Amino acid sequence: MKLKNKNKKGFTLVELLAVIVILSVVALIGMTTVLPRVEQARKDAFVTEANKFMQAGANAYATLLIDGGTITGTSPVGGSLGTGGGTIDIRTLVSKGYINKADIAGYSGCVQVTISGSGNSAVASYQIKLSNGKFNTDGYKTNVTSSGLKSGDKASSC
Predict the structure, then answer these.
(1) Neighbouring residues of 154: CB distance < 8 A, sequence distance ≥ 6
(2) How far apart, in whole angstroms, are the C-alpha atoms of residue 67 and residue 83?
(3) Beta strand pairing status for 150-151 and 80-82?
(4) Is the torsion defined by CA of 51, 53, 57, 62 positive or negative?
């Protein structure tokens, strides 16, 4: 007596391989469009943080102009910021309450304040040197933009 297999449910090996190949192609196309966007998002986040830290340095300097005195750095980089300008480390900005501690996780750097002119015509300019291990702003003035970021783990020393 011959047994007949009347129940032919399921997929053949060729059909399964075809589905796997199609899914792989779709995944490859998706990855090539998503990964550059992720990298740009990381750059944009770094730029936002750099501008925030520079604004914190400007706020610290404005407070000094109102209150007088100096801010002396507490970290190894430290620095000193007075009414005549100077350099202040971002960790010092945290210790003085200008930046939240959680905001600087993974970052190192400083804000430099330079004064040009004197008296009522004195103008302060701000420069940030910031690094997060992947990008750095090696001395940006005014607003940081993603087009000028440098790859690398360190900004020039403060």
Answers:
(1) 108, 131, 136
(2) 10
(3) unpaired
(4) positive
pLDDT of residue 76 exceeding 50, the answer is no
What single DSSP character describes residue 117? S
> 80-125: per-residue pLDDT in tens?
777 778 888 888 888 888 888 887 888 888 888 888 877 777 788 8
**Entry pTM:** 0.70
Rounded to 5 degrees, φ, ψ at 151 are: -85, 145
Alpha helices (H) in 68-128, listed in sequence order: 90-95
The DSSP output letter for 119 is G
Q: Which residues of 22-39 are buried (b: 16+ CB within 10 A; e: fewer)?
A: eeeeeeeeeeeeeeeeee
pLDDT at 28: 92
Break the chain into its structural domains and give their ranges. 13-151
Please give the Cα distance from 105 to 87 (Å, whole number): 20
The whole-number pLDDT of residue 105 equals 84
